[in-house]
Design brief:
Rossmann fold; 3 domains; proline biosynthesis; alpha/beta; P5CR-like_CS; ProC C-terminal domain-like fold; single chain; about 50% helix; 10 strands
């Protein structure tokens, strides 16, 4: 499906929906004329109208005019909305829930979506299939699926360490297969994902995957050797950042600040620093130097980090996680 053919709907027009919609428009992924949004009142619809999107108070109209529909209601409202929409849902619809606390199990129960314990059934009823098993399980799963794979299938592996060469060896010749590695912040649309394509994947297939993932944050096509490095840098890297944030906050608590306030400030500090890196395009060393003044607080703090070998420790952590990702593909 070409990006300009996508018709995107939002049931609910609050902040999260607005942020995602604004991102789609800024990225040029979907024209405003192809976006339809519903809300019970005009309060949240005005900004969408300014963007040139079609707005309505009818949730069914969103479903009827869209193929990709984001559910962005309040949690207590969702069951009523699903009951209203359910008769109009078709196999052509892709439904994406942004509703906090509503599990897939609940969505399946409310929507009557089909779930199964049979992997072959997934393949037979889908054209785009994400492989998300444990690495040691994947060869058995692919052996099961292999007879049913067709040239129409697009298989996307999220399995750490399993190379395209191994995937292609376990699948029929010419199978369209890609490797994808996202990270956890993708669930908040601020993630980082990279992918590599196998020999059977054309530009259109790669563009489709990139288009689907771009609202989740950064999405880059890279040479395959970078996939495991991305795992060590970004997939595992979010945990390094959480540890750093925790240590910063605990330092402030040690000096007398309440833990809640310290945690919020630490998180905001990391967010602001990351945004400056992305928006200025400056090298981290340049921005770090801009904060330091001769004899000031920052250079004294940095001196202690250097004494503790923070730089080398982080580099070693990225290396260790990358090497483990490579090992997982060999196990």
């Amino acid at each position: 499906m070409e990006e300009q053919e996508l018709r995107v709907g939002f049931v609910g027009a609050g902040r999260l929906a607005g942020g995602l919609g604004r991102g789609l428009l800024r990225a040029g992924k979907v024209p405003a004329s192809n976006i339809v949004v519903s809300a019970p009142s005009d309060r949240n619809l005005a900004v969408w109208q300014e963007w040139g999107c079609h707005t309505t108070h009818c949730n069914l109209e969103v479903l009827q005019e869209s193929t990709v529909v984001f559910l962005a209601t309040k949690p207590h409202v969702l069951p009523t909305v699903l009951q209203e929409l359910r008769p109009a849902v078709t196999p052509q619809h892709l439904l994406i829930s942004l509703v906090a606390g509503i599990t897939l199990q609940k969505l399946q129960r409310e929507w009557g979506c089909h779930t199964t314990h049979c992997n072959l059934e997934v393949l037979q009823e889908s054209t785009v299939v994400f492989l998300a098993t444990k690495p040691h399980v994947l060869p058995t799963v692919l052996q099961e699926l292999r007879p049913a794979v067709t040239p129409q299938h697009l298989l996307i592996s999220l399995v750490a360490g399993i190379t395209l060469q191994k995937l292609q060896r376990l699948l029929p010749a010419g199978t369209k297969v890609l490797r994808l590695m996202p990270n956890l912040p993708c669930v908040l649309q601020v993630g980082a994902a990279v992918f590599s394509r196998g020999t059977g994947v054309g530009d259109g297939d790669a563009a489709l995957l990139q288009s689907l993932l771009s609202p989740c944050g950064l999405c880059e096509e890279v040479p395959e050797p970078y996939i495991n490095i991305h795992t060590g840098l970004s997939g595992s890297g979010v945990a390094y950042v959480y540890l750093f944030a925790e240590a910063m906050a605990e330092g402030a608590v040690k000096m007398g600040m309440p833990v809640g306030l310290a945690s919020r400030i630490a998180a905001q500090t990391l967010l602001g620093a990351a945004k400056m890196l992305l928006e200025t395009g400056e090298h981290p060393a340049k921005l770090r130097g801009d904060v330091c003044t001769p004899g000031g607080t920052t250079i004294h703090g940095l001196y202690q980090l250097e004494k503790g070998a923070l730089r080398a420790t982080i580099m070693n952590a990225v290396q260790a996680a990358t090497e483990r990702a490579c090992e997982m593909g060999e196990d």
